[in-house]
Specification:
Elements lengths: L4 E6 L5 E7 L2 E8 L12 H23 L8 E7 L3 H18 L3 E5 H7 L15 E6 L4 E8 L2 E7 L5 H11 L7 H8 L22 H17 L3 H32 L3 E5 L6 H13 L3 E3 L10 H13 L17
Parallel strand pairs: 1-4, 4-5, 6-9, 9-10
Antiparallel strand pairs: 1-2, 2-3, 6-7, 7-8
Helix pairs in contact: 1-2, 3-9, 4-6, 4-7, 5-7, 6-7, 7-8
GO molecular function: iron ion binding; tRNA N(6)-L-threonylcarbamoyladenine synthase activity
Family: Belongs to the KAE1 / TsaD family.
EC number: 2.3.1.234
């Protein structure tokens, strides 16, 4: 790993983040969150892009200061080109291009989904990085997929959701329970106090390694409507058990396909990535399979699970070593295939 110093910029959704990496060691990883979306129960794209415009300069300045480097020490700038919210991506892309031009350093575009997976190669992400080939369950508010990772930039999506992402299902079910946005972490917290076997919800029957999460959302909605007609305080009286039962169902759906893929492809190296990889029940299920199925498991540090610039900087470092630079004519893209 080279000693180049790279600035990574992430702005795909509602977190403005900047990080400095040297080799595969993170010197700083700063993020500004946008609390405003809580009022609307979801991310409002126009508000997100405005907040990025306000946050990006202070966040980048803070990341450089915390890394204790001079601006002219930066070897290249990596940025999230996509996928994500176009307005948000445009802010990060435009800023990265301008700064790269002013510092006269190369520009490196990064695929956000690749970055979640390659975050495992950051020095302090795991005690040891995964060995190729490995399976990575990449699961967040916008994406749910099983990826066969053959090399740093040789990845194949072998299964994905045909409708909602798992994180989206957590948030939509949270809305049914009248929980704040984002509901995933709240459900995780309340589930710790509940009985995961209290209620049963439908699981989809999907082909191959694909997922579907719209069914569980509908199953929960109809169940709640029926129970609330009988007892208006049903949700309040059973909230912990409801959260525990929903969480158990979603994690079982996720793990069943991952276990199937690992067995059929004979892969023992298994990782998780993305925002939902912070979920305590998913982490425990991975730990259980380490003991039960002999998997070598890779669970990233919490700060590398949600959208963060450290993972962008990591991919940019790998591309920098390969001389894979981006033309200044490049533009942000809402859809960006793995």
């Amino acid at each position: 790993m080279s000693d180049s110093i790279i600035l990574g910029i992430e702005s795909s959704c509602d977190d403005t983040s900047a990080a400095i990496i040297k080799g595969n060691c993170i010197l700083s990883n700063i993020a500004a969150n946008q609390a405003i979306h809580k009022e609307y129960g979801g991310v409002v794209p126009e508000l997100a892009s405005r907040a990025h415009q306000q946050n990006i300069i202070p966040v980048v300045e803070k990341s450089i200061t915390k890394a204790n480097i001079q601006q002219n020490a930066i070897s290249a700038i990596g940025f999230t080109r996509g996928p994500g919210l176009l307005g948000s991506l445009l802010v990060g892309t435009s800023f990265a291009k301008s700064l790269a031009m002013s510092l006269n350093v190369p520009l490196i575009e990064v695929n956000h989904l690749q970055a979640h997976i390659l975050a495992h190669f950051i020095e302090d992400a795991n005690p040891m990085p995964p060995q190729f080939p490995f399976l990575c369950l990449t699961v967040s508010g916008g994406h749910t997929m099983i990826v066969l990772v053959k090399d740093y930039f040789d990845m194949e999506i072998i299964g994905k959701t045909i409708d909602d992402a798992a994180g989206e299902a957590f948030d939509k079910i949270g809305k049914i329970f009248d929980l704040d946005y984002p509901a995933g972490p709240i459900i995780d917290r309340l589930a710790k106090e509940g009985n995961p076997d209290a209620f049963t919800f439908n699981k989809p029957r999907m082909e191959n390694y694909d997922y579907s999460f719209s069914g569980i959302k509908t199953s929960v909605l109809y169940f709640i409507q029926k129970e609330v007609r009988k007892n208006p305080d049903f949700i309040k009286e059973n909230l912990n058990d409801l959260c525990a039962s929903v969480q158990r169902t979603i994690i079982e759906i996720l793990m069943a396909k991952l276990e199937k893929a690992a067995k059929e492809l004979n892969v023992k190296e298994v990782a998780i990535a993305g925002g939902v990889s912070a979920n305590s029940a998913l982490r425990q299920a991975m730990q259980d399979n380490h003991e039960k199925l002999g998997w070598n498991i890779y669970i990233p540090k919490f700060e590398y699970t949600t959208d963060n610039a450290a993972m962008i900087a990591m991919v940019a470092q790998l591309k920098y070593e390969r001389g894979e630079f981006t033309d200044m004519k490049t533009s942000a893209t809402a859809k960006y295939d793995l």
